[in-house]
Amino acid sequence: MLDDGVSSGWAVTIGVLAGAAWGLINGLIIVAAKINPIIVTLGSNFVGVGVLYVLQKQAAVPTASGLRRWGQDYLFGLPNIWWPMLILIVVVGVLLPRTRIGRRTIAVGGNPVAAKARGICLRRTRLAVFTFSGACGGIAAVLFAASTPQFVPTDSSTFLLPVIAAVIVAGISLSGGRGSLLTLLLSVGLLSTVPTALVFFGLSSNWQIVFQGLILIVAVSIDGRSQKKAK
What we know:
single chain; mainly alpha; 11 helices; about 0% strand; globular
């Protein structure tokens, strides 16, 4: 869009809407076919990467664009791209247990049968959640593009394992209905120290994915055990 002369504001809006549309497609598949959400989202990720390779194997935000300049700047000593992440997590984390749609989301994730008995529309809530999640993915993609000189579709795969690990380490249940986005912020901060810790102990950065995998295994085991105790 920026290469074609579209303004940064419109380009960002289109990027976020593209993410929301992708999330809506995921939601429609999950609701209609009743397939495990993790399987659908992982599968659609591979489809998306393949489509992007067909359309455009490599891309870059023009250096003269306002988005690129903003992505390289700092505010209060921290990168500009850090602040939208913080605002999004804090706002959603605060509103989730305090708003009607937030409480419905938690109810549908925790106990769909009970939520349906209370008159909550499961399909509508799930579609709204997946659409919003897709929009968040669009925001993340725009921030990544704004701060990266050049990128290819497979760059997203480097974030897949850390994201899943951060979510589980934060205590967010894979079965739904439990977790705190504010705790997730601390989890992301903890896992981001892994590369620095490896350098401190004199280990190669190639060990990073090994430790992330081990953390993921331990976190999933703890989550599974807690679910058994809850039952």
